[in-house]
């Protein structure tokens, strides 16, 4: 039977404010599934024209699929969000690129014609599920030297990346981090972030963490506006003595959830849904696990090649800031300046936080906002590094651009 | 006296209060609507221990209001909200604290304390909001009524002002504020009608439809949406336009409707509904403080009165004692029941089969003496399952499952060889029952419980000819089996603990209120009802007109008059039970010749209903042979109550049940005797009948009365 690949679009995306993991964090007494459920509900509220019965899939990513992130959270979250029983769901795991993979996976199904529209998102409550909870690495990894031990500790892989690129100094990483905080604060001040946040009610019973009772979270908790180089220079380097990676030039340990609507362009147009970005290409590439932060480089090469584009065609970059060094390695590779205006205009994970499997959709939501504001930009990309040595890149087209393709 | 002193004094009287905290937390509302103070009511336990208000809890709320009031006046906040812990908003006053109150002035303090604290919410300089996130009752509902705006969760399972049900009035603003918010008619429905209709609860959507809440949001993100809505209200984007209350004729008609409902339910016998209606009637002028003052007085009067104490006593019996039956053996001794046998396939047997089937969801097999009866029994169960399916109470899968589980066979060996629990519901004759049990014992496994649904025969005698009499248990249900909660579990002389424990475990699965009863004639409910009816019958036989005898016991507020009850039971069965008890206790239980004549004439009752209400059937009137001793209503009442008090006294002496509380629990759950009487013994104590007849009260002071 003849098939036509269909254009896939990013309809809309939302996220919860991100919190700091741990006993004093805003979400310490909030369940992970409730976070993603509330994100899904907000997505539907924002798009009242979408009949929930028409949703073909709910793909939700989580890295640690245990407890309130287990039980096939894509399915349970759909039921808890009040979606019709007929809407199925599944769980996805590609660690930090979980939500991004949820998007590309349902996008593939949309392009193939299996789905018209799907929800893709992710959640990670690193307070309830600390990194490494319940892991059981095969002893062969070490005995057969399949990977270096440092491959299991993301901070160590970041130190390894500094080793590989000696020109990326701690100073440069710290400067990058300060800029990320500045840009994030500015984006907040200009109201660029709040419009895509889902307010979350949070309960606190521990008086040591602050006022007790119910509260409402409407902003990201990890942000540290006003951070200076001086503040950062004195921080400890927990992954290596006299190292370069600190809590200041890396994303923290965070809680949060995201959700997006991915649809065929025809479906979106027929149902009067917004078309915020058009998918151009995506790719995932494996690299040495010891320098997983290198991943975005080959992933981007591959995605560009698939799209027949070059890096100079990309007008906006949303790079996940797991570590400043990993962003800088990417920029150096492509000869882009550390403070290039096209890169992470609203700041990044160093400021907002990085609840692992949820972050991919945050990048997309922010890129979509930037597309709206900058119709002169035709292409943008979202990219991230992934644990155990992977990179993930998605290239998007701005439907607001005068030459953009698709079925307007 | 200041509120603080008032509450401090009250708190000293109630040292064991589970104290509710009123946490104040600040947040920034969405849409830049400003800084907001949210009060969370939380007693620190999970939802299984709902949040309540005692004096220390009220003091905590008072302190929280101090704080937000100051912040509001200083312009630091734009609004104040109040909500509850997960699944619970607040379920009102802590009844344990109410029980402890001994003096009118203390009771008055509780009423005033609540008012003084709650009404401060209305005086705060910024708008106030209540978010009914979960169960809200009584004072919980009322605290929200003092706020300017309310939202309610669609997931809220229970919302009520149950005070009248218990014997109180909604006295922390409910009687006054609710009619002024939603009109007198709807307020009467909530405060009077629902309370007197077995304490019916409202769901979230109904709370919204009644106009009690201004907005309804789904449970999944109720608080978030409530706060977003709050932000819109504060910014003036949402304007709440409540319908105008009809303060004319409709108000008086509503109160009259309330009185009619109260009369039909309690016949003037319990004061709470009438006190509440008086306050609702007075609230017509919109003078809130006058209403609050009236509530204080009504609360204090009722707290110091017997009806409330009886109501709380009854509530505790059903909620606590009914769930942990006195004298039941260790539940770990119970054996599993994976298949049930029913001997007999008549109407009673079929009803039992249906009940076991629905609750236990194990195979149930009916037997009888011929195939036609067996088929009829199974057919009845199938038809009832179809009815449940038709009403949407069960789905098709469940209907298929239940139908497949019920079977009927002629051969007991085939049906019962692997049954764990076999109940008989055959003809009430000791020889027949003994034969049936012997047949069952021959084919059933050695561990199987043999239960009898006898209402008057001796369980011990029934078991006496068996090889294993220790496994026989009395399992006495009340008609209609599906509705009346009581199950009298009868321990025969040889019944062992494991069998009894199994019986209690089955009762629990059947969702019945089980009461352990000694193997004594007619057990509890039938013995008391028969003595009660017998005395009514005696005074009629002696010459008192039927209507005088009937009217005499109206103040008890029984679910129906004695002769209507007799009609429901069937005069022939009533006669049979009176004959049985007459044989056991000839000095106290009589057999009425008039009743015998009515039965002989084949009449199904004393009344005809041609005019729409019961009137003495002329044919029955013609049969009656009455003497010429005509008593007044009062004299009749005294004789009847004396008889009941005497019988209960003797039953307790005989050890038929563990305590008087079990008698009351039986009468409430098996005969529908009203809560406000506390069954019957609190009433007999209060009216001085117990002391007159037995020289002492049934219950210790404070149990269902104001403590000494």
Layout of helices and strands:
The complex is a heterodimer of chains A (408) and B (708).
Chain A (H helix, E strand, L loop, with lengths): L7 E8 L3 E2 L11 H15 L10 E5 L11 H8 L8 E4 L5 H15 L4 E9 L14 H4 L10 H11 L5 H20 L10 E5 L8 E5 L11 H5 L20 E11 H6 L6 E10 L9 H12 L6 E6 L4 H11 L14 H4 L6 H15 L5 E8 L3 E8 L11
Parallel strand pairs in A: 3-4, 3-5, 10-11
Antiparallel strand pairs in A: 1-8, 1-9, 2-8, 5-8, 6-7, 9-12, 11-12
Chain B lengths: L2 H10 L8 E9 L4 E9 L12 H19 L5 E6 L3 E3 L4 H6 L3 H20 L4 E5 L2 E3 L1 H7 L3 E5 L5 E2 L2 H4 L7 H9 L1 H13 L7 H6 L5 E3 L4 H13 L14 H18 L5 H11 L5 H16 L2 H16 L18 E4 L3 H14 L3 E4 L3 H20 L5 H10 E4 L2 H5 L4 E4 L5 H14 L5 E4 L6 H5 L8 E6 L8 E6 L5 H13 L3 E6 L6 H18 L3 H7 L9 H8 L1 H14 L8 H8 L6 E2 L6 E2 L1 H6 L9 H22 L5 H12 L9 H6 L2 H6 L14
Parallel strand pairs in B: 2-3, 3-5, 4-6, 5-7, 6-8, 7-9, 10-11, 10-13, 11-12, 13-14, 14-15, 16-17
Antiparallel strand pairs in B: 1-2, 15-16, 18-19
Helix pairs in contact in B: 1-2, 1-4, 2-4, 4-13, 5-7, 7-8, 8-11, 8-12, 11-12, 12-13, 14-29, 15-16, 16-17, 22-25, 22-28, 23-28, 24-25
GO molecular function (chain B): enoyl-CoA hydratase activity; long-chain (3S)-3-hydroxyacyl-CoA dehydrogenase (NAD+) activity; NAD+ binding
Family (chain B): In the central section; belongs to the 3-hydroxyacyl-CoA dehydrogenase family. Belongs to the 3-hydroxyacyl-CoA dehydrogenase family.
Keywords (chain B): Fatty acid metabolism, Lipid degradation, Lipid metabolism, Lyase, Multifunctional enzyme, NAD, Oxidoreductase
């Amino acid at each position: 039977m003849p098939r036509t690949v269909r254009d896939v679009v990013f309809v809309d995306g939302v996220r919860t404010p991100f919190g700091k993991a741990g006993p004093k964090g805003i979400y310490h007494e909030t369940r992970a599934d409730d976070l993603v459920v509330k994100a899904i509900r907000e997505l539907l509220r924002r798009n009242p024209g979408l009949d929930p019965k028409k949703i073909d899939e709910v793909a939700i990513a989580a890295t640690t699929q245990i407890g309130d992130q287990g039980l096939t959270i894509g399915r349970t979250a759909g039921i808890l969000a009040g979606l019709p029983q007929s809407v199925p769901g599944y769980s996805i795991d590609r660690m930090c690129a979980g939500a991004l993979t949820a998007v590309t996976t349902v996008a593939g199904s949309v392009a193939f014609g299996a789905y018209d529209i799907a929800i893709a998102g992710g959640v990670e409550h690193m307070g309830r599920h600390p990194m490494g909870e319940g892991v059981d690495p095969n002893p062969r990894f070490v005995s057969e030297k399949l990977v270096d031990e440092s491959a299991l500790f993301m901070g160590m892989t970041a130190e390894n990346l500094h080793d590989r690129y000696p020109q990326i100094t701690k100073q440069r990483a710290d400067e990058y981090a300060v800029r990320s905080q500045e840009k994030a604060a500015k984006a907040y001040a200009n109201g660029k972030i709040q419009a895509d946040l889902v307010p979350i009610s949070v309960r606190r019973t521990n008086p040591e963490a602050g006022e007790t009772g119910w509260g409402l979270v409407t902003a990201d908790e990890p942000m540290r506006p006003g951070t200076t180089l001086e503040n950062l220079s004195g921080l400890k380097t927990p992954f290596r003595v006299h190292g370069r990676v600190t809590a200041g030039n890396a994303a923290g340990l965070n809680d949060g959830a995201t959700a997006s609507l991915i649809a065929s362009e025809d479906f979106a147009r027929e149902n009067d849904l917004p078309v915020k970005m058009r998918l151009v290409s995506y790719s995932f590439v494996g690299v040495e696990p010891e320098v997983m932060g290198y991943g975005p480089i080959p992933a981007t090469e591959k995605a560009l090649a698939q799209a027949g584009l070059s890096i100079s065609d990309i007008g906006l970059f949303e790079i996940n800031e797991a570590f400043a060094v990993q962003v800088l390695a990417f920029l150096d590779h492509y000869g882009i300046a550390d403070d290039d205006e096209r890169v992470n205009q609203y700041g990044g994970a160093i400021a907002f936080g990085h609840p692992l499997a949820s972050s991919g959709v945050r990048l997309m939501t922010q890129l979509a906002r930037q597309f709206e504001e900058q119709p002169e930009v035709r292409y943008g990309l979202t990219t991230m590094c992934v644990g155990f040595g992977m990179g993930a890149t998605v290239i998007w087209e701005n439907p607001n651009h005068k030459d953009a393709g698709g079925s307007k | 006296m200041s509120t603080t002193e008032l509450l401090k004094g009250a708190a000293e009287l109630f040292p064991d209060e589970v104290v509710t905290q009123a946490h104040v937390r600040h947040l920034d509302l969405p849409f830049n609507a400003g800084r907001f103070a949210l009060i969370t009511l939380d007693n620190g336990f999970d939802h299984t221990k709902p949040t309540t208000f005692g004096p220390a809890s009220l003091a905590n709320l008072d302190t929280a209001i101090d704080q937000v009031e100051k912040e509001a006046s200083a312009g630091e906040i734009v609004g104040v909200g109040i909500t509850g812990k997960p699944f619970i908003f607040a379920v009102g006053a802590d009844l344990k604290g109410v029980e402890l109150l001994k003096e009118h002035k203390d009771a008055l303090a509780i009423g005033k304390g609540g008012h003084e604290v709650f009404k401060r919410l209305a005086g705060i300089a910024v708008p106030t909001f209540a978010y009914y996130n979960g169960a809200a009752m009584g004072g919980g509902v009322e605290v929200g009524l003092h706020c300017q705006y309310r939202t309610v969760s669609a997931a809220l399972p229970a919302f009520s002002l149950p005070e009248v049900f218990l014997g109180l009035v909604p006295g922390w603003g409910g009687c006054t504020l609710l009619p002024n918010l939603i009109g007198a008619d709807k307020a009467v429905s909530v405060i009077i009608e629902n309370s007197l209709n077995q304490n019916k609860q409202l769901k979230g959507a109904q709370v919204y439809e009644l106009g009690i809440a201004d907005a309804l949001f789904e449970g999944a993100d109720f608080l978030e949406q409530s706060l977003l809505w709050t932000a819109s209200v504060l910014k003036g984007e949402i304007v709440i336009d409540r319908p105008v209350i009809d303060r004319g004729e409709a108000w008086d008609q509503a109160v009259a409707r309330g009185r009619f409902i109260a009369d039909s339910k309690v016949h003037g016998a319990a004061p709470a509904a009438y006190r509440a209606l008086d306050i609702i009637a007075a609230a017509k002028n919109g003078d809130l403080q006058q209403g609050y003052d009236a509530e204080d007085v009504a609360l204090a009067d009722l707290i110091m009165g017997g009806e409330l104490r009886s109501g709380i006593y009854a509530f505790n019996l059903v909620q606590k004692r009914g769930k942990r039956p006195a004298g039941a053996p260790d539940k770990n001794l119970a054996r599993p029941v994976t298949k049930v046998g029913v001997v007999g396939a008549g109407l009673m047997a079929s009803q039992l089969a249906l009940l076991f089937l629905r609750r236990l969801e194990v195979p149930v097999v009916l037997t009888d003496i011929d195939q036609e009866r067996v088929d009829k029994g199974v057919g009845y169960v199938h038809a009832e399952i179809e009815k449940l399916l038709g009403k949407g109470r069960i789905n098709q899968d469940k209907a298929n499952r239940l139908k497949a589980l019920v079977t009927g066979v002629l051969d007991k060996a085939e049906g019962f060889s692997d049954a764990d629990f076999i109940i008989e519901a055959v003809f009430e004759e000791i020889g027949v029952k003994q034969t049936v049990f012997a047949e069952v014992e021959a084919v059933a496994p050695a561990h199987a419980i043999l239960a009898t649904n006898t209402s008057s025969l001796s369980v011990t005698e029934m078991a006496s000819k068996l090889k294993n009499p220790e496994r026989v248990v009395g399992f006495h249900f009340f008609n209609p089996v599906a509705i009346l909660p009581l199950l009298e579990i009868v321990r025969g002389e040889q019944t062992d603990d494991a069998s009894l424990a199994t019986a209690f475990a089955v009762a629990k699965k059947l969702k019945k209120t089980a009461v352990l009863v000694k193997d004594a004639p007619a057990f509890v409910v039938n013995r008391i009802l028969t003595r009660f009816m017998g005395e009514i019958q005696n005074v009629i036989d002696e010459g008192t007109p039927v209507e005088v005898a009937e009217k005499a016991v109206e103040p008890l507020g029984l679910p129906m008059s004695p002769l209507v009850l007799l009609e429901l039971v069937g005069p022939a069965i009533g006669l049979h039970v009176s004959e049985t008890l007459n044989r056991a206790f000839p000095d106290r239980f009589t057999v009425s010749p008039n009743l015998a004549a009515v039965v002989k004439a084949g009449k199904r009752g004393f009344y005809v209903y041609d005019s729409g209400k019961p009137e003495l059937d002329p044919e029955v009137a013609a049969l009656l042979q009455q003497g010429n001793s005509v008593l007044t209503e009062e004299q009749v009442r005294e004789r009847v109550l004396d008889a009941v008090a005497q019988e209960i006294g003797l039953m307790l002496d005989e050890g038929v049940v563990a305590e008087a509380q079990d008698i009351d629990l039986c009468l409430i759950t098996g005969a529908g005797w009203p809560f406000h009487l506390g069954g019957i013994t609190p009433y007999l104590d209060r009216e001085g009948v117990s002391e007159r007849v037995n020289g002492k009260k049934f219950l210790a002071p404070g149990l269902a009365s104001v403590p000494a």
